[in-house]
Specification:
alpha/beta, 4 strands, globular, 4 helices, about 110 residues
């Protein structure tokens, strides 16, 4: 059985590369536990995001989304314009969406 390819969607605005990396690592570890390691977290970090326009970053993220099986919404996604748009596009194009905060609560039970 092939692994589930997952894209992480999390706010990046005003964050350092290290903050983004740390947050994504935490998200990935949670997803590995949830999917019993039957998943692959796609490398979808937009390099030099602080040097690009928001629209350029967003267009890259949509291209990444076209290559995955699941979109995982990180903490605070509902407060970030790009994440909200990724979420809506995933729903419109039938890309399954999971929510890290709900997964975390479910795993704590």
């Amino acid at each position: 059985m092939s692994k589930i390819k997952i894209m992480l969607s999390s706010p990046m605005k005003d964050k350092t590369d290290k903050e983004i990396s740390d947050e994504r690592n935490e998200m990935a570890n949670l997803l590995f536990d949830y999917y019993d390691d039957n998943c692959e977290i796609m490398s979808t970090v937009i390099e030099n995001h602080n040097e690009k326009s928001a629209l350029e970053c967003f267009s890259e993220s949509i291209l990444f989304m076209s290559m995955v099986d699941v979109l995982a919404m990180g903490y605070g996604w509902e407060n970030a314009r790009g994440c909200k748009l990724e979420h809506d596009i995933a729903l419109a194009y039938d890309v399954p969406v999971v929510y890290l905060d709900k997964i975390k609560k479910e795993m704590e039970l």
